Amino acid sequence: MSGPTPPPGETHTWDEVxxxxxxxxxxxxxxxxxRPDKRLTSLEVEVPEENPAQPGKTTTRKLGxxxxxxxxxxxxxxxxxxxPKRSQEAAFLLLVKDRLCALAYPATxxxxxxxxxxxxxxxxxxxxxxxPFARLRKPRxxxxxxxxxxxxxxxxxxxxxxxxxxxxxxxxxxxxxWTAVGLALxxxxxxxxxxxxxxxxSRLQGAKRDAGGAAAAIYAAYAEKHPSTGQGAPATxxxxxNICPVPPPASGTEGSQNKPAAQPPGAALPASPAADxxxxxxLAGNLDPKLIQLCDTYAYDExxxxxxxxxxxxxxxxxxxxxxxxxxxxxxxxxxxxxNGGSDHCGPKQETGPSVSGMVSAFANYILPLIFGLVGALxxxxxxxxxKILDSVLxxxxxxxxxxxxxxxxxxxxxxxxxxxxxxxxxxITSGNSGLSVSASxxxxxxxxxxxxxxxLLDTVLARVFxxxxxxxxxxxxxxxxxx
Length: 484
Prior knowledge:
484 residues, mainly alpha, two-stranded antiparallel ribbon, 2 strands, 61% helix, 2% strand, rod-shaped
């Protein structure tokens, strides 16, 4: 095997090629022997042999797994013996390798070696941070490796250049994992804040509706008891105060002055009559237990309404609210009340509620899906790496392909809201047996996690929308596109 001279520029000798082939056959044999879904007993190879009865002529003979394993175990490097014998060993080695590659598919000798090296490597935090900015390509000697598995040693001997690539891949895997964890934490906190902001604005609308309903119930009950004074009475706060006279609170935000407070049923009315004759006439209505209960309900609803206004204002002024307003701006909030400032326009207002609701909705439907799309893409990448390691099909080019998958996953997550209505998707899923509800961020996560499937769906939609199949959908049916 060492007779012919290598071509110009070729540094490998034929003996090295023989060595690589032998190492790869060892890797493939060990891989197949350790897999529950593959069997070495199915290994058969037809090899050429010289016919003893007819010198100079060769015949083919089929070898089974036991004889093949015995002959491979007898091979040594460097090959010994005469030139014809070495040529026969090389031919036998190539034929066995070809058959083993078919049995091990989709794994190859290189993927088996690379997977074993990656699985055995550990990278430090410094390597994780610095490897993207510096290419550490130092020539490595091949010392005796006694602390690694034999198959890893065989892989390093067969592919010595894979060690640096494996370190870089491990650093990439670690960066992807920690990035996914960090983005998941940030996305979860932001999603919780967005959900809380949505709940505050919903609570504000509900409290406003309840307070109005309670006031309307008071007007109706009072008009029923005092038709002469209640009919045509304007539905104003002052009128409710006349019907439910209570001492005003000592302090509060704007709009809370002169608001009625909750009184226990059967509480005594104020001892001193009001100066307003209309209010004096209305005091008698408070002796009605029904009005007392309605006044208590109204006082509670009004207090809840004030708290809801204050909570929405506090949310808009919080660190998260100010940060979101940089991306999705809202109107300028009035300053806090200063006792010595003399400002007539300060403090929380209920008009802030719709603005905060729009800000939170835009952030939750467009910004958060991008974050969760990246989280889904990184999670899918980690899952792909795990599956490839289990199947021993990891190769160096997977690093570039996985980066592209992360990029496509982020794009898919950001674009998912353009094609899916979260409310309709949630209704469709919850109507089945799964009982799963999907939000906009959940759809983005799914799109990022299954980016290839998402873009495959877009290809199908593209073919139907632009009628690329000549007016026929797959299977001969005419495609039907519904506009929403």
